[in-house]
Amino acid sequence: MASPKTRALAIGTATCAFAIGYVMQFGVPFLGGPTGPVEVTGITDTAAPATIEAEAAAEPTQTVPVLGAATLPQLPGADAAPAQLPDAPVEMAAIDSGTATDATALPAEAPETGFACDIIASAAATAGAMVALDVTAPCHGSERLTVHHSGLMFTATMQPDGSLSLDVPALSEQAVFILSFASGDGAIAQAAVPSLAFYERTALQWRGDSGLQLHAREMGADYFAAGHVWSGAPGSVETAARGEGGFLTRLGDAAAPEPLLAEIYSFPAGTAQVEGAVSLSVEAEITAANCGDDVSAQTLHWSSEGRLGTQEVSLAMPDCDAVGDFLVLDGVVRDIEVAAR
Q1: Which of 104-108, 109-113, 263-267 tops mean pLDDT?
Q2: Would residue 196 count as lying in a domain?
């Protein structure tokens, strides 16, 4: 009788022989050998309730292919037909010509910022044969301006914002004003002043601190009395408009370096309500700034007859020992004869 070890060895040997024969005939599934799809059918979930089992039994049996290791996805063949898109009609949209824009048009330029540097001047006649002169020069704020008018010249200084307003006695019925800055920029303004025909007008102009003054004594008036018109008592345009007396206008910015200054006396000879004469004179105060120097000036006279005359004036000032005194220059400007109207 064989021992247990002998029987175990015999059984193991037979099992190995059977397994080797099976592999040699059928191969090992899922280890690289060719396999086909495996159909899995009749799968029952034993944990599901009976109602679910009944529904599962009613469903048709599905075949689930299981790919082996040797099964790879295949690309479509070269003779496969290309996929076709659906043939949808193409509709053209109408464009409203009223709202269409030119795609090639360039956008409008953005407006410039900041302010313009144009110089604008205007002139308008006012009462007393005066002209209201207005200047706007935004890029010339606080600058020196020279005003030219029929031989008259004076210095003005622009406001910090580039504006300036002046009242200037006209020396021509067709008054033209030339305005010039040191840079050469400038402007021109003009105005018709027909009322100038009713006025006698005398101007005295000079440069710097010359100490010169223009005085008018109307109808024999004494110095510093009523009827004495000068820079200290200039009269008014309203008085002249009533034909009762004259007025004096001082032009120029005395604080500017080497300024051009002027004084103009106006009398309404054509509408005067008085009769007599106006005595005109040029006076010079001797100061520390002009003593011992020569002073030059010019006079201009407009007559109601429509003529403008000029005269040069030159004066040798006394030495500085006479500072505070006055010189009276008679005959430099002519008197005005007045006939009552």
Answers
A1: 263-267
A2: yes
- Pick from 150, 263, 156: nearest CA to 206: 263
Give residue 154's domain range: 120-338
Task: Report pTM.
Answer: 0.67
pLDDT per residue as tens digits for the range 128-143? 999 999 999 999 999 9
> Token match 């007859």: residue?
305
Per-residue DSSP letters for 174-230? EEEEEEEETTS-EEEEEEE-GGGGG-EEEEEEEESS--EEEEEEETTPPTTSTTEEB
Q: Where are the beta strands (DSSP E) in the chain?
A: 120-126, 130-136, 144-149, 152-157, 163-169, 174-181, 186-192, 200-207, 212-218, 228-229, 247-251, 260-267, 276-285, 294-302, 308-316, 326-329, 336-338
Domain total of the chain: 1
> Residue 2 domain-assigned?
no
Q: Is 331 left (phi over 0), alpha (psi -120 to 50) or beta?
A: left
Structure tokens at 67: 């790919």
Q: Which of 19-33, 112-126, 136-150 has the lowest mean pLDDT?
A: 19-33
